[in-house]
Specification:
With 500 residues, the protein is of the alpha+beta class. The protein has a domain at 3-136: lambda repressor-like DNA-binding domains (434 Repressor (Amino-terminal Domain)). 47% of the residues lie in helices and 11% in strands. The strands form two sheets. A six-stranded mixed beta sheet has the order 5-4-8-7-6-9. The protein has a three-stranded mixed beta sheet with strand order 1-3-2. Helix 2 packs across helix 3, helix 6 packs across helix 8 and helix 11 runs parallel beside helix 12 (234-246). The two termini are 18 Å apart.
């Protein structure tokens, strides 16, 4: 039997390395040499040495024989905990030296020999922890974040915003819990978590910088007791946490990797809440009726307007043959999130980054805020230097204030959408400064020396992100939270005994 099914697939260095340390520990306690233990279990000392160094996986029969010879149980050997504090430090040193930060230095690996004093080992681990921390701090700079975000956006543009392998994974998971059609239930999401060995726990004191926290040791996914205003529903947050486990994500070693992981979990969550097969069937029928509407798509699957809009962009080009764009814009005009493969001119800085750039005042994403009634979608045609686009916008309110969600298409494609008959039309000359970023000359002349405003300071533009293991997350706050909520070890042992 293959022992890997007993091991956590997301362990730090290697479960085999921990197993090797535990075999060595109990062998030492029994006063046996490698050859001595080998004689008892019918293995060469060299084979046992490979197992103790985490380089060979024992068969279950061999593990049972080793446990019997050492007068312990196989459960003792398969525990995920290093047997001693010394072992814990040795394993951490190995993990750090196998990481990208140390590898880039081109230095030889230092092996923690038996004769290495504990204080030397502790110093090496401490130094490499600090190297790792400083590297993480460097990759979380705003400049690096903008470059990496731009690269990810262009990557998805090339792929028409589609990730078919994640669509397939989502449908596989849905089939496993008996999903058929309609809105996915919270019960089904909880069943998905159970299938991979986790339970969903709702708490009121999550670290402020997190949407969810996963306790890998005790198999718990902690979630807030209610949805986050403005977009993140409980089902979506739980599915994102589940996706990390299904996709085998490890701690990100670069900001690019962090963004890629976030993209994948968001996509998986949307693909699970709005499965490709059912969604495409629904949207093709709406297209045939020339009545595509994000609000209807949203209501059919019981998701947020933003989730439905983004999911529509995943399917529009590949499955419906439509070029599209998506915008999330704050009430101050700042672009928070965007995608386009239809040629819509997006504002961007010299590096090609779009986040934080100000959208033209004449775009539907901004004129939608001027309505007295915002309960329905807002439709508008906009003439731009790149052509005319039809857009549908919906406004909402989140934790950071008001925002608009816009989905749009080129003029010739609008005929497939509800609202294409609108007579509302606007003109944008951006990026020309004479379009909307400068006041009219006569107004500027009047007020240039007669106005004084007290600016609202955006503190986040000055404060760096917490530089923890995960960009933007405070490690101290995260670990304090896990410590508060960790189950009592006696309860854990009792649960394990019950499962056995």
């Amino acid at each position: 039997m293959n022992l890997r099914r007993f091991f956590r697939y997301d362990a730090g260095v290697s479960d085999l390395a921990v197993l090797g340390h535990r075999i060595r520990h109990y062998r030492g306690r029994a006063g046996l040499t490698l050859d001595g233990l080998g004689d008892l279990v019918g293995l060469a000392g060299s084979q046992l040495s490979l197992m103790e160094n985490g380089k060979r996986e024992p068969r279950l029969s061999q593990l049972q024989a080793i446990a019997a010879a050492l007068e312990v149980t196989t459960t003792d050997l398969l525990s995920e905990e290093p047997p001693t504090e010394r072992s814990r430090m040795e394993l951490e040193l190995q993990r750090l030296q196998e990481g990208a930060v140390y590898s880039r230095l081109g230095l030889p690996h230092v092996r923690a020999s038996k004769t290495m004093p504990d204080e030397v080992l502790r110093s090496l681990v401490g130094l490499q922890r600090e190297l790792d921390r400083r590297s993480r701090e460097a990759i979380a700079t705003p400049e690096q974040a903008r470059r990496d975000s731009t690269a990810i956006r262009l990557q998805m543009q090339q792929a028409d915003n589609s990730m078919p392998e994640l669509d397939a994974l989502a449908e596989e998971q849905l089939a496993a819990v008996g999903y058929e059609r309609g809105a996915l239930t919270h019960r089904a999401v909880a069943d998905m978590a159970t299938r991979i060995g986790f339970e969903l726990v709702y708490v009121t004191d999550l670290p402020h910088s997190t949407r969810s926290v996963t306790d890998l040791e005790h198999g718990r996914i902690y979630l807030p007791p209610a949805s986050i205003p403005g977009g993140h529903g409980l089902r979506s947050m739980a599915l994102q946490a589940i996706a990390h486990r299904l996709l085998g994500h490890s701690e990100p070693t670069s900001y690019r990797e962090f963004l890629q992981q976030r993209l994948e979990i968001n996509y998986f969550a949307a693909a699970t809440l709005m499965p490709r097969t059912a969604s495409v069937e629904y949207l093709r029928r709406a297209k045939q009726e020339r009545n595509i509407a994000v609000e209807d798509f949203r209501d059919a699957f019981g998701v947020t307007h933003e989730s439905a809009a983004m999911r529509f962009t995943n399917l529009a080009t590949v499955d419906l043959g439509l070029q599209v764009h998506f915008l999330r814009v704050g009430d101050d005009g700042a672009l928070m999130r965007a995608y386009e493969n239809d040629g819509l001119p997006l504002p961007m800085d010299a590096s090609g980054a779009i986040e934080g750039q100000v959208v033209c005042r004449h775009f539907a994403a901004r004129t939608a805020f001027d309505r007295a009634s915002r309960t329905t979608e807002f439709y508008q045609y906009t003439d731009t230097p790149s052509g005319t686009f039809w857009c549908s916008s919906q406004t909402g309110t989140g934790t950071d204030g008001e925002f608009s969600i816009t989905v749009g298409v080129p003029f010739d494609t609008a005929k497939w959408f509800r609202g294409s008959s609108t007579q509302r039309r606007s003109q944008s000359r951006c990026p020309a400064e004479t379009c909307c970023s400068q006041p009219a000359p006569e107004i500027a002349d009047r007020w240039r020396s007669n106005a004084w405003a007290s600016a609202r300071m955006h503190q986040h533009t000055l404060a760096p992100l917490p530089s923890g293991t995960f960009p933007g997350v405070d490690d101290a706050e995260l670990y304090d939270f896990l410590e508060r909520h960790a189950p009592d070890e006696a309860d854990v042992d009792a649960a394990r005994m019950g499962q056995g």
